[in-house]
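Support reply, case 0932

Customer input (verbatim):
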Amino acid sequence: MPYVLGIDAGSSTTAAAVSRIRGGTWTRPEPVELEPGSTAVPSVVYLAEHGELAVGDPPAGSPDGERKARDFVGRVGDDVPVLVGGRSCTAEELTAVLARWVVDRVTTGVGERPEAIVLAHPSGWGAYRRGLLHRALWEIGLGDAVLLPRAVAATESHAARGFGGTTAAVYTLGGTSFEATAVRATERGGFATVGLAQRLDEFGGAELDEILAEHVRTVLGRSAVGGRSAGGSAPPDLRAACARARRDLAVATETDVLVRSPAGPVRIPVTRAEYEEMIRPALRTTVDLLDRAVRWAGLAPDQLDGVLLAGGSARIPLLTELLTARFPGPVQVQAEPRTTAATGAALAGCQVAARSTGVRPARPAPRSPAPDRRHDPADRHGVAPADQAHHGAVPDRYGNELAHRRAGTLDRYPDEARHGDPTRYPADTGYGDDAPEPPPRPPVRLAPLELPKASRLALVRGRGRAE
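Our regenerated output:
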């Protein structure tokens, strides 16, 4: 049975969803169990004994602290490599390994390869980072995968569940990362990011858990029973207990943080009101960043049709309260927000696969694109139209809008790494490939550069220095 696959490779966890053709139409995307009983797996890659990269935690008894890598997705484009068991890897290589593992896992379970693969990535990426990841995917056998900003994927998921607006702010709070993005409907029926995405790479549910863990340590004191083991380090289960308490407080008004100690289990009661007071300053900062992302897009809060939430840590009642107080429009969050971007990526995959399958997805009524409300001749940040390409919206080949660099900056990747197979994507979908291929460039011959001996010596001495 033909199907499409959507993948959301997050900094802390990775989720996937599939949509199948049934009865002559595409079904609603369903999250995939990548591990028994779980629709999300940790975004962890380790160096196996045979020298190949594998996904997950190393086997028990191995020095996993030296052999595994995490939080690498947000590092795509960094010049500093990631060391995995002494092996130097790029962040895009590790992300491609993670995506390939998901594709193989789903292909094995279904029995055939998907008709289309859409991978959601951080919304603030420009053409350079997307090109690096596309090249890495191409080298690992996923050159036909389509890259989609996470905010666009999340908006597609919300649109399929009733959001009918044309302009929205997308708030994504994951385990170890946060991003805020403004999106707008396009003339081709899809969505696109506008303005500059705001991102925090070291803030998410894990940071909120640490705030609660510090409260637990304060309540118990610094004794061996309270928050510290005999070796002087925090109990290994304290962070996990705080994560469970955070999830419980999303639906309950009080819970207990259960901590093991040499004297036996210790229960620390925590109410939702207490917890909200602990995390309020941190969440208020993220709301400020969302407001900044909206204003960078040239919009005011009252011009939004809604605020859309995504990410595994987004179901916090206080978060909805803070967003409602700042933005007049409705705030929407799904029952399982950690799979929101994955299901939205699968919905985009239905559009991508329309040519090969002949089945087009049933989409909501066509949206009228929102007018461009950016200030003219200069926006409130003092950027004139000639410079708005630095932060404004420029559509790319897949219907996305990117915060491009200023004019004159060269793309540093080959065309095949950026676009993949130009015949793969339909021309009349929201994420199609409707731009003609540029004519081939004439050959350029460069004469070899002969350096004087002094310059060569300077190069040797200067190797290894950071620029």
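We compared this against your earlier run and they match. Two observations from our side: The chain is about 30% helix and 20% strand. Residues 178 and 286 are 8 Å apart (CA to CA). Please reopen the case if you see a mismatch on your end.
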